[in-house]
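We modelled the chain as a single entity of 208 amino acids. Its sequence is:
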Amino acid sequence: MSIQKSYNEWSAIYDGNENKTRDLDQMITRRELDPINFTRVLETGCGTGKNTLYLVNRSADVTALDFSEGMLAMAKAKKELSGVNFLQRDLLKDWEVGENQFDLVTCNLVLEHIEDLNPFFKKANKAMVSGGHLFISELHPFRQYKGSKAKYGSGEEEKELEVYIHHTSDFIYSALNNNFTLISLKEWFDENPSKPEPRLITFLFKKF
């Protein structure tokens, strides 16, 4: 099953199922973006709108992209997100959002599904104003090395999605190659970790 079809299927249960990665991502996104001022946001891979709810309360304008019809339908159904400009877009293709438009671009739990990171950073840079921030939150490479990947369902019905392993240096070099500078890199652990390795890694870049 394609990644897009998998997310369409996953969308019906995404908000309700237990998901430590989703919940930790939601918490740290708020924590990391709270100190930053922004007015126009481009959210790439918005899913059901778990982080859009935060972004729309912090900024005057939010454009949210996702390639899954199912995920977008769930997000659009939330009354709190009625003012968001939702667009169905494949991040591997032209985003069609204009140039030099946004002072914040976010990407959460998406890039593991994209093999080559360079085009993503190039498009993000193109969409952003000078001095704008790019925030990325992803499954930590340590977990990927051990075989962890996005999956949904339970028991015999559990389904894994196609993913690509990216080293920490892959994110940094792709960003540097596309005129970003690294502001911060952080590793995040579960509140009561049963495993020693971090669950998520976040990057905050700035366009110069």
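As a brief sanity check on the tokenised model: The CA atoms of residues 34 and 98 lie 26 Å apart. The chain has a mean pLDDT of 91.
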